[in-house]
Amino acid sequence: MAVYFVVLIAGAKSSSERILFLLVPVIEKIMALTSSQIKFSYGNCFLCRKYITFYWQKRKLTENSSIRVRFAPSPTGFMHLGGLRTALFNKLFAVKYSGKFILRIEDTDKSRVQPYAKEDIIESLHWCGLTPDESPLAGGNYGSYIQSERRSLYSLIAQKLIDEGFAYRCFCSLERLNVLRSEQIRRNEPQRYDNRCRNLSQREVAENLAASLPYTIRFKTDDSPINVNDIVYGSSTFNSLNSDGDFIIMKSDGMPVYHLANVIDDHYMEISHVIRGVEWLNSTPKHLLLYKALNWSPPQFAHLPLLLSSSGGKLSKRSPEFSLVGRVRSLRKAGYLPSAVLSWLTSTGGGLSHDDNFSCKQIRDLEFSELVSRFELSNVSRHNAQLSVDMLKTCGQLHFDKAINNALDYCLTHQKQNKLATYKTPQILNTIKEYLQSNVENLSISISHSAQDDLDMLKRLHLLKGRVQCLNDLINSDNGFLFIWKSPDLVTFEHKIASSNFIKLTLQDMLKIFSCFIEEVDFILRNERLKNNIDVTSETITTCLQNVSQRSGVKQNIVMHLIRLGLTGHEVGSPVVELIQLLTIPKAANRISKLYGFLSRSCASESNEAL
Which range is the signal sequence, renumbered to this chain (predicted)? Predict the structure, then answer.
């Protein structure tokens, strides 16, 4: 069972208390198995009353309690961007004040739970580096961290509220509630429960229970105004007359609604600050009423503004950018660096302090540790945050370039100082190599982790500065970078040559151009005796291409088109000199050599057919 039983047993002062807590798991198991048929009575069970009273005493917030925050998503689908931002702000706050960041899975609404969702939430947090200190995976002293496994605790608290007069059983059928709602709409009245079952006598309640009538449990409200103090939105007063009336805290299936489970878990997990979306601000008065009834000190609240689409509307599946950025898995699939995503979210949601030497534009380039040092809940804007995909791309480009620069400096330093024994492949290279292996079939490069191979790869990536926003840009054939990792298909080359409106060359002309290119490259490599073949200058490559044009007798622009098509599979794209630098000149020569062999065989085949 939950870890806290072990903790409490160890701290029990008497043998009777030890026996009590040894029996609690058995009681919980019985309640879990029978709760749908039998309503466990807290008021008539001394053991439960003893347990829950002792448990409250152990779990009350102390005056010197540390910072403890939680991210509490419902596993109803793939993790969305708004959830990631909430998790980020909780994590930033916890790290800044040396607190704990807790992941709690709120799965009490079984009809909406998706089997893949919990794993996706955990993987998304791990991908972004927002690792929880306590979670279903990591465990902790305040578990279980899955609400459906805490069901018996909710039942005990609900029964306590009934016994102390703060709640009651409601036997109203769904049909009656629908009729009530329809009538209120017809009369243009507020839609709220009319509290009919609040005044049922004990005899009526007993008769209904004996008849096995289904019931919910409702919490009693009054007309008193409720004041909510929020770190972001300040002080607000809510009028109970505009509320839902006596609201449900336990459903007829014995599962708690969000309000009750949330309050109970936040209390027992000693949450000091509740940082969540502003959509829950209107529910906070209900939570404060529950805290007051249970004589618990509420945590501090900080509600985050909504995350809107670029058009200013709700970020939904109908939003044009939802497929690109609406879910965390979409960002992962596109290959955005986690640091870029986190900077983007903070730059759109506020929370960072500014000074005269720090501009909003600089936020886009900050690493997590820098975000932590500048983060303050009081700086979170009250205005809804409007997404900008262009800003995400800017963050992506800045963080990619920064990561490549840092990795290149690291590799060069180890090489110059001859520290190869302590060399480790930089994380950005591991990430890129894993992405290439997962997304590109038939890679034409070897994925190794030697210092020299890493350095060669980093020098090539450095040439792409300012042009890569996410890892998908490295393999997207539209932007022309896929050729670096994958050789174009030889048969496709032949078809493109045949359909080209620009390259009108005979087979012999193409063979001549390729032969001259191979010879020129061989001359460069033999005469310059290059140790690091990626460092061929652009001037040297330009001279090479000019010589190919002169020797073959073909115009230079035609030569460029043919070489580009042979190297990349595209007639248009980046300058050929740059393409050769990205490939390295030996690899470029190797591709042209394969094409030369392919065309030579085609030429021989045509000759044989002519005979």
Answer: none
Q: Helices 389-416 and 451-462 sit at what angle, rounded to 10 degrees?
A: 140
Q: How many residues does the chain have?
A: 611
Task: Work out the pLDDT band at 601, boundaries 50, 70, 90.
Answer: confident
pLDDT band at 35 (very low <50, low <70, confident <90, very high): very low
Asked if 182 and 297 sit in the same domain, the reply is yes
How far is 557 from 174, CA to CA, in rounded Å? 78
What proportion of the chain, given as a percentage, has pLDDT over 70? 83
d(CA 62, CA 66): 9
> Per the domain annotation, does 352 fall within a domain?
no
- The mean-pLDDT minimum among 17-26, 270-279, 302-311, 581-590 falls in 17-26
Report how far residue 326's alpha carbon sits from residue 121's, in angstroms, rounded to the nearest whole number.
Answer: 14
Are both 502 and 472 inside the same structural domain? Answer: no
Residues with catalytic function: 317
Judge if the upstream peptide bond of residue 152 is cis by omega within 30 degrees of 0.
no
Q: What's the pLDDT band for 535 if we cut at 50, 70, 90?
A: low
Show the DSSP H helices in 35-150 as ranges. Answer: 46-59, 81-96, 117-128
In this structure, is residue 247 part of a structural domain? yes
13 within domain boundaries: no
Sole residue written with tokens 């709700």:
314
Give the end of a domain, one of 283, 304, 325: 304
- Count up the domains in the chain and report the number: 3
Q: Is residue 114 part of a domain?
A: no
Tell me: do 511 and 586 sit in the same domain: yes
Other beta carbons within 10 Å of 382 = 13
Report the CATH number that the domain containing residue 229 is assigned in CATH. Answer: 3.40.50.620
Q: Residues 164-185: pLDDT tens digits?
A: 999 999 999 999 999 999 998 8
Query: Which residue range is the domain that position 195 belongs to?
Result: 152-304
Amino acid of residue 228: V
Q: Are residues 299 and 157 in the same domain?
A: yes
pLDDT average, residue stretch 446-461: 87
What is the pLDDT at residue 19? 53
DSSP state of 465: T
- What is residue 453's three-state secondary structure? helix
